[in-house]
Design goal:
It is built from 5 helices and 5 strands; from the N terminus they run E-H-E-H-E-H-E-H-E-H. The chain has helices spanning 7-19, 30-39, 56-68, 79-84, 101-114; strands spanning 2-4, 26-27, 46-50, 72-77, 93-96. The protein has a 5-stranded parallel sheet, sandwiched between helices.
């Protein structure tokens, strides 16, 4: 599951995850994440989120929803987002931007192998 409001980055990461053979569903709102987790409770193994453009409360809600569903959460965040979300991202893995798309794909693969 891919959550991002940054459309170009979301599209590129979506394509790379698909290319890697992974089942991907992308959304741009936490409400859509909640709906997808409710509709397909066993479909996803990892939630990848770019917190840019989301209020801190939305990020905390997304992390909480995913963790309660038993999913790993990977935040791909810039330095400013890492600092502002430090107390709201408990239980999430953080990849700090700048990071390559390949590194994100590999982090998703590692998280899926841990399941």
């Amino acid at each position: 599951m891919l959550v991002s409001r940054v459309w170009p980055a979301r599209a590129f990461l979506y394509a790379e995850l698909k290319e890697a053979g992974l089942d991907v569903y992308g959304v741009d709102a936490v409400a859509d994440l909640a709906e997808a987790l409710w509709q397909w409770p066993r479909r996803f193994g990892v939630v990848v989120m770019d917190p840019a453009g989301f209020p801190g409360g939305d990020v905390a809600r997304a992390v909480g929803l995913a963790r309660r569903a038993g999913l790993d959460v990977l935040l791909v965040a810039g330095p400013w987002d890492v600092d502002r979300l430090a107390d709201r991202a408990a239980g999430a893995w953080v990849l700090r931007k700048p990071v390559t798309i390949g590194a994100v794909v590999e982090a998703v693969r590692r998280a899926l192998r841990r399941r």
